[in-house]
Amino acid sequence: MTPTELLPAPPPHAAARRALLAGSAGNLVEWYEFGVYGCFATVIAANFFTPHPATPGGGAEALVATYASFALAFFFRPVGALLFGRIGDRFGRRPALVLVIGLMTLATTLIGLLPTRADIGAAAPWLLTFLRVLQGLSAGGEFGGAVSLMVEHAPPGRRGLYGAWQSFTVALGLLAGAGTAAALATVLPAEALYAWGWRIPFLLALPLGTVALWLRTTLEEPPGAPPDNPPGRPGAADPAEAVDTADATDATGPTGPTGLGEQARAVVLGIGRIMGWSAAGYAFLVVLPSHLQSALGASFRDALLATTLVNLGFAASILPAGLLSDRVGRRPVMLGGALGIAVLAHPLLHLLQSPGASPQTRATAVLTAGVLVGLLAGPGPAMLAEMFPRRVRCTGLGLSYALANAVFSGCAGLFITALTARTADTAVPAHYAAGACALSAVALLTLRGNDHREPLR
Fold it and tell me: What's the burial of 64, exposed, middle or buried (CB within 10 Å: 0-12/13-18/19+)?
């Protein structure tokens, strides 16, 4: 039997489409919730992190505490990536993905039912933080399982496009969160929004999560995935095959790895390659509403409008970026996004802050910022999946993503808000995004031009 005959047959298109839908649905629910949390950060601060009854415009200290809770959830993502990643690698992608969407839906719904500090006192912020931790565990397992499922089901030459759907549904979730928040801010007076209206978008996660859960219980495992292809059977990957050692500066490629040290190096390199995506994505897509309000004096409605526009630009560029990376490679597309943000972050933020800028100019600025982040997010999932062999793919790529997000995304709101308050420098978001993307561009240079054409290991 030839080596080609030992490879699993490409999946039927119907199974690939189902996998794409099931994998994407959970991402949409997860990032819808995170988008809502970012948009309602000032409202949550007033309800849970101030000792007095909720009033519009909570103070800076309460907002910092809100983002501290936000950051804590991110630091539980690596734990979730290890826990659910091992389940996905050992028992199959479906069990892991069913568990994570169930946990995310439960935690998000409970946030919508949670008593505020005015109701139960100091226990309220602790309960909120506990539910955020559960969400962090779930989100940590979501990425590795969903991306592995999508990329392993992808037809030849379409891994970038299939992986980009993960990022695209992230954008849809953020848009849905921002759109829901904007709609509530439009139809409800501020007092009602702070009193009870903020609960509505969290409770909407229950029907969304139920649909996603049903989709995942019916999906098929990728060909050759555990447990259908355990160690010792033809075509099975050796558990030791974690990363490539062909090149000391690159953890991807067709040859075998040497052990745990190489796995760790692959994770670190993966973090470097996506740190700009993590930092810029959260600076522009999630933190922007509260920054515009607290630092630039924008109204809640105007801040949400800007967030909706930046997420529209983000969503519009993701799938084309993933498709383009299937044709020209991951490196040129992602480098273009990283260098674009490093160069343009400060001019774009300056336009937002300029009192003489027209609404059309400001809209163009935020749309451009979103497009540049999309150039990183489109090819990013497939790039990470190509760094790890099948038997450690869920864990390896999930851990890289979770650690990058814990450091560069979860801390973004806390860092930007605290540093802006301390220094009165309203360009802190641009410093943060530009610096991370400049460092990320260096790591992206280690990508090889033909990685996207190599078969998955």
Answer: middle
Helix (H, G, I), strand (E, B) or coil at 250: strand
Going by pLDDT thresholds of 50, 70 and 90, the confidence category of residue 240 is very low
The whole model's pTM is what? 0.78
How far apart (Å, rounded) are the C-alpha atoms in residues 282 and 70?
A: 12
Distances (CA, A) of 70 to 35, 436, 442: 12, 20, 29
Q: Could you read off the pLDDT of 350-397 as tens digits, one per residue?
A: 887 777 778 788 888 889 999 999 999 999 999 999 999 888 899 999
User: How many Cβ atoms are within 10 Å of 18's Cβ, its own excluded?
Assistant: 18
Task: Give the closest residue to 407 by CA, choosing from 374, 375, 432, 371.
Answer: 432
247 pairs with which residues across the strands? 250
At position 345, the amino acid (one-letter code) is A
Amino acid (1-letter code) at residue 312:
L
Residues 30 and 224: beta-carbon distance below 8 Å? no
Query: 455: which residues sit within 8 A by CB, 6+ positions away?
Result: 7, 254
Paired with 250 in beta bridges are 247
Give CA–CA dist 321/410, Å, rounded. Answer: 25
pLDDT bin (cut points 50, 70, 90) of residue 5 is very low
Q: What is the pLDDT of residues 221-239, one digit of tens each?
A: 766 554 444 444 333 333 3
Per-residue 3-state assignment (H helix, E strand, C coil) for 299-362: CHHHHHHHHHHHHHHHHHHHHHHHHHHHHHCHHHHHHHHHHHHHHHHHHHHHHHHCCCCCHHHH
Give 188's DSSP letter.
S
